[in-house]
Amino acid sequence: MKKEFLLMIAITTALAAFAQDANAIFTCKIGDAEVSLLSEGQQRGNPSTLIGATPEMLATYAPDGDFPTAVNAFLIRLPERTILVDAGFGTRLFDNLQQLNVRPEEIDVLLLTHLHGDHIRGMIRNGAVAFPRAEVYLSKAEHDYWTSDEETNRLPAPNREAFITAQNTIRAYKKALHLFTPNDDGNDDNALLPGIYPIAAYGHTPGHTIYLLKSGNDRLLLWGDLTHATALQMPCPEIAVTYDVNPEEAIQTRQRTLAYVAEQHIPVAGMHIAYPGVGRIFRNGAGYFFEPSIDNDAFTRAVDRQLQRYPESRLTDIYKHFFQDYFGPGHAIKDPESAGRYLQQELALCGECTGDPIEPTGWQGRYCRVDLCVVKENRITQEALLNAFIESANNALTPPPEAWSHTWNEMIRRLDAMPLDVPDYETDKAALQAILHDGHYAVHHSETYEQHYNPHYRIIRKTILDRLTENGNR
Ligand SMILES: [Zn+2]
After folding, report:
1. Positive or negative CA dihedral for 247, 249, 255, 259?
2. CA-based angle 240:241:246, to the nearest 5?
3. Per-domain boundaries in the chain
4. Less packed terminus of the chain by CB within 10 Å, N or C?
5. How far apart are CA 454 and CA 57, in angstroms?
């Protein structure tokens, strides 16, 4: 076993406890509505499914050789009705509904974005309709495509499965089926149901329809399959996928919708956006930046973890923890030589390992702090750590300042409501607001923190540590 891989034992223990609960249900409030992500599963997507992704795009936005994806349905609970948007495969759907205390008979409305199997298979359970009381809404264009004999017969018989599944499902719900023509865009005010505005988003399939939910002053766009590889298709919306029926049209629809939600500050929910499946979109150069919504429980746990381990933390240190989770080591050091020199200098200053030297950052744990003591104690070579750090820095995201500013304001709202015993909280809060206001976001640890904890670590992307672990196990 190579020396650098001895690190794996520490990594495995630190991260196993942190792994995202795959069964987690994410719920957010949109006006009077409670919207819940019902995840059918979290996966890693294969770049071979992408059309138009250059090697540079893949190296930048899929540095691990794949990208996070998921299959989701969404539940909307309004005071007057309960709505399911798509039905997934039906793998975890019914367990998820049960966890939310919703029986299938309580679903009043089923809104369909399109008729691919990963959106409708959950409509049939044990050979019968799974939602006996639901009124089903589907765009006429989508219905006509999948029920057309001409389209079905275009394919050789063994490849007609998707058409047969769609036709059988639609037939089973025939009595409850409502066909409609969606609005051209989100400015159109024709509601399908109170608070539900369907928008044509054709391309992925010929009748693909997305749903704008309006409740009180809040809005949410449930945008179906507008992205399958969010990490790539936000910065590069011109990337399509092999399962787009009309990739060109799908690209135009994505561009148009991204511009609309970024301009109007409308959060989105996606059927293939990884947990939590909901977030906001900001313009970022020629493309867009996706900012995931905050998981409240994971956020609270991360704050508690920080304060238990570092009770002398100031607000600045809490901020730094979350900032690092979103953006890793940033692009501060790109030149390997000076990065190597800094590492060498800092090694002379750091002490022995106390406690776990590997610590996940923030609430997502996308990055880890790796204490330099692991090099001192020969658990990892200096070279391996340096390489992992440089790779992390090179692939770190560059957020538009307003996206991070928005996230931090959301975090502050939650921190304000927590019973925190952090000195100079208000002073630090104002100082951080001033930094963000000036369009900057990187901060140093507080002096108190430096004095108490003598922090010397490198921020490494979690997937790079995972890779080291896998190699070590071989
Ligand atoms: Zn899909």
Report:
1. negative
2. 75
3. 3-14+296-473, 25-292
4. C
5. 38
Fold entry, domain 25-292: Metallo-beta-lactamase; Chain A (3.60.15)
The pLDDT of residue 350 is 87
If you measure from the C-alpha of residue 417 to the centroid of ligand 1, how many angstroms do you get, rounded to a whole number?
38
Distance 270 CA to ligand 1 centre (A): 10
**Amino acid in the structure at residue 38:** L
SS3 call for 392:
helix
Give the list of residues 6+ apart from residue 322 with CB closer than 8 angstroms, or none.
Answer: 302, 361, 362, 363, 407, 408, 411
Q: Where are the beta strands (DSSP E) in 171-208?
A: 177-180, 196-200
SS3 content of the chain, % helix, strand, coil (to 5): 40, 20, 35
pLDDT reading at 215 higher than 60:
yes
pLDDT at 471: 58
Distance between Cα 119 and ligand 1 center (Å)? 6
Distance CA 143, CA 126 (A): 24
Ligand 1 centroid – CA 228 distance (Å): 7
Q: Do residues 130 and 97 make contact, with C-beta atoms less than 8 angstroms apart?
A: no
Predicted TM-score (pTM) of the model is 0.91
pLDDT (tens digit per residue) in 71-90? 999 999 999 999 999 999 99
Distance between Cα 453 and ligand 1 center (Å): 48
What angle (nearest 5°) sits at the alpha carbon of residue 430, between those of residues 418 and 31? 50
Q: How far is CA 240 from the centre of its chain?
A: 19
C-alpha gyration radius of the chain: 24
Q: Which residues surround ligand 1, an ion (CB under 5 A)?
A: 116, 118, 225
Single-letter amino acid, residue 147: T
Residue in 317, 305, 307 with CA at minimum distance from that of residue 446: 317
Token pair in block for residue 163: 């058409």
> In this predicted structure, what is the pLDDT of residue 23?
55
Distance CA 388, CA 375 (A): 13
